[in-house]
Amino acid sequence: VVTAGIHKAPTIETAEAAKVIENVQRDLNIALINEIAMICGRLGIDTNDVIDAAGTKWNFIKMRPGLVGGHCIGVDPYYLTHCAEKAGYHPEVILSGRRTNTEIPYFVASEVVKALFKNGSTDRTVTVLGCTFKENVPDIRNSRVFEIVKELERYGVTVQVTDPEADFEETFEETGIKLIPFNQLKSASALIVAVSHEIYVQKGWGLTSLLHDQKGLIFDLKAMLAREAKPNTIDLWRL
């Protein structure tokens, strides 16, 4: 039952445009924060701390950095761009935001590789937790996690991926990546918490059991883990 009421758009074109620009706006908002995250990383500042501080201002929009996948937010900007170009206008801001969000998986992969070499570990095994495009759903459409995996493999990293929601057969058919059941994962030098499924939230820092001797690198893309409870044996990276 819809309790918020119904807005009647004057035309079907208006209704479709409204639906598209809502997703475009969200894509651009995330792109801005993703770019800020890349800047903060170079400055040695935690992005989420910056967002929390900025969020004390009443009109600041508290978006969080992250991967932009799925069948709406990462797709609708191209629909609008196509229509705009057919009408003789070439969008700049919309496509710029898309480029930024498209870059994030490769940025994450490069940070993982740099950290592995800096850490000095002879083992180059990385475990990726989650591959769906958002938490607690089985939908892998346009998930950017797979781009992280393939980029890491291009660097020669051994990657094992697990997900409690995704269908193993569908994932292999669509991406060529074989998912591994959680209880069959081998110890790794690094973890990438890519999707904050509820089961991972519940395990929290217990996820360190997946690392060699419960020490190593954790890349928490969702800022899911409580930083104040971080074990001393863990090097934590947040987007």
Explain briefly what this protein structure is.
With 239 residues, the protein is an alpha/beta fold.
Provide an overview of this structure.
The chain is an alpha/beta fold. It has 2 domains: 12-98, N-(1-d-carboxylethyl)-l-norvaline Dehydrogenase, domain 2 (Orthogonal Bundle), CATH 1.10.1040; 105-238, Rossmann fold (3-Layer(aba) Sandwich). It is built from 7 helices and 5 strands, in the order ααααβαβαβαββ. It has helices spanning 12-43, 47-54, 76-86, 93-119, 145-154, 168-175, 198-203; strands at 125-129, 158-162, 190-193, 216-220, 234-238. It has a 5-stranded parallel beta sheet, covered by helices on one side. β1, α5 and β2 (158-162) form a beta-alpha-beta unit. The longest helix is centred in the N-terminal third of the chain and has 32 residues, at 12-43. The two termini are 38 Å apart.
Task: Round the Cα radius of gyration to an integer and report it.
Answer: 19 Å
Named CATH architecture of the largest domain? 3-Layer(aba) Sandwich
Average pLDDT, rounded to a whole number, is: 95
The secondary-structure element order is HHHHEHEHEHEE
Structural class: alpha/beta
Number of strands: 5
Strand-residue proportion? 5-15%
The portion of residues assigned to helices is 40-55%
User: What fold name goes in the CATH topology slot of the largest domain?
Assistant: Rossmann fold
What's the CATH H-level homologous superfamily of the largest domain?
Answer: NAD(P)-binding Rossmann-like Domain
* Count, helices: 7
In the CATH scheme, the class of the largest domain would be: Alpha Beta
Anisotropy-based shape: globular
Low-confidence stretches: none
